[in-house]
Amino acid sequence: MKFIVGLLLGLALMPLGAYLYFTGGIAPVATTDSDMPFEKFFAKKALHARIAKDMPKSVPIQANEANYLAGAELYKQHCAVCHGLPLTPKTAIATGMYPAPPLLLEGKGVTDDPPGESYWKIFNGLRLTGMAGFSKSLSETQMWQLALLLANADKLPASAKTALVAPIASPATTAPATSLPPATSAPVFPSSVPSSVPPPK
Asked: CA torsion sign, 176 to 144 to 123 to 186?
């Protein structure tokens, strides 16, 4: 009987302990703090499960030079400040972020991930990481161009590698290189998204 009472009391105190942990200034919220208990474990489990459930399984554009070049310009404009460029030191923003943003054009990057996984991350962003979602600022085609660039970062043509280290081109050169049919497996786009293609049904 004492064991049952102790167990029930312990279960009742757990929510109170969690409340005091988060409201008492104890929880790690600064980028210089150590990880929250089990933070990485549960965050990775939740992220991988959600991506596996929702990510598009097919790529609606071709992995060709035109799309790599368009993706390179988009990457320089929107991604490089956090995820780096070849032969370029980390920016102050990337250095101060937690968790540290991966260097997508060095080592294997995300070349071992399917393009649909990178597309999902670009579209939705990742909470509590600093990774923004671009569904309201880029078209579906542009997000796929970025995803293909990253998925093939280890085998890009010379023209795309040169574009990545060249100055950012004028915005007119970053228009989508291809038009897409409606994507059935991608998330629903808000009506305000600037895109030349209809939103997924």
From this structure: positive
Contact indicator for 197, 179 with CB cutoff of 8 Å: yes
* Domain 63-174 CATH superfamily: Cytochrome c-like domain (1.10.760.10)
pTM of the model: 0.75
The conformation of residue 126, written as its DSSP 8-state character, comes to: B
- Written as tens digits, the pLDDT of the chain (201 aa) is 777 877 778 777 878 877 887 788 887 778 788 887 787 888 889 999 999 999 999 999 999 999 999 999 999 999 999 999 998 999 999 999 999 999 999 999 999 999 999 999 999 999 989 999 999 999 999 999 999 999 999 999 999 999 999 998 765 444 444 445 444 344 433 444 444 444 444
Residues 6+ away with beta carbon under 8 Å from 65: 157, 159, 160
For the chain, the structural domain boundaries read 63-174
d(CA 33, CA 165): 34
Contact at 8 Å (CB) between 56 and 183? yes
Q: Reduce the DSSP state of residue 131 to 3 states and report it.
A: strand
- 123 with 135: CB under 8 angstroms? yes
